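Table S4 entry, FAD-binding domain-containing protein.
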Amino acid sequence: SPKSAILTAADPGFRESLSRWSSIDLNVPDVVVQPISEADVVTTIQEAVAAKVPFVPACGGHSLWSTIENGLIIDLSRYKGIATDTSQHTVTIKGGVVMKELQLALAQASQFTTVGNGNTVGIIPYCVGGGISSYTPLIGYACENIVSARVVVVEVSSARNTDLLWAIRGAGQVFGLVTEIVMRTYDLSSMGNSGVRQLGMLTYPSSRAMEVCEVLAKVISGSDRPSAGHFMIVQGSSKEHVCNVAPQFFGTRPEFQRAFQPLADLEPDSNMDMPSTFDVHSDHLYSMCLKGDFKRFSQIGLAVLHPENFGSLVKLHKELLETCPGAEKSVFSLEWHTPTPDKGARENPTSFGLKGVDIWLNILTWYTDSGLHDKVQEFERKACEIMRSDIIPEAYVTYTNTSRDEPIENRYKDPGAVNRLKELKRRWDPTGVFNRNFL
């Protein structure tokens, strides 16, 4: 349609359209198409396939796989739509809607759903790839809350193409370009405390990491209230090496303080807490969404918190900062969620299949020198090796939204699900138009 944009290197907006969260493997395509409607998305894909031109979709620009050379990018930033239906407790999300836009729309309707920790992350790719969330302890993963979806010209729901709906709930990026999803929403009041959650930040010297980890493990396992959070290894504002515990608690401030009192009893260097509402869920992490530099974010699943392993991870992070100039923004962290109740969205069948994983190792490497690619990647590999030291390879778990390089069997743990996904891939995308996974 006339309102859609087709950009080439000669157009003023071409270079800006290529900007990404990370400059790793950033390519320059022949064309960037910015459709304004689903019909234009379909036409673009049809013409690209007919001409045998490879393409990739782009939404929020966070994916390392949304860039291509000798092909075209389908940039969904101009095609957006959000429609809430409070009577049905659903929200319809179209195209390139990002987290912050969804949060604002739902908060205005006194609703919430699963969202991630980045305001500029595309909501649809986040959801169809699993959708780990701080709200998982309450309502499950994002993919479990997908009610229906549209994949280019195919509509899937509990009544139509149910096999593909199952696949899209966790492997949606494999089967096509998902142009629309309908998600389950929940009343903000069901979160407790009138929809206000508590955020905390307790800071300790990294030399106390093992001690803090041991206490944190007991706090999490002994909790009778839902919470999530991160135990982070970072460089502090004064360039000191520190560990931060950042809980997110669903309850009142006094309840929060009681739940995490054992950590306060360790006498951290600083101890802060504040209320937070859904509309500003990730505003405090704004700097993490800045575009440019070289960044990679990956996640692997863990069974338990091991203080000894975490102590080794602290040493590795310190070595990374000491030997890789410009990498001081890199963060290694453990993310936890208290267990999700086996009801509601958790009862929905999904291909994601990682319902029992409540602890994740998050590896964010952030550096400025492209000559450090291989060296930094080796640190990432060592971090995974340390935290998997007591796990047999057959039990390795990897989050597919951030780590597509590991074996399929690490990302989808049920052999039956893998076989079913392979069968569906052969049926819906036998030539690998969208990607070669499961072929």
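The mean pLDDT is 95.
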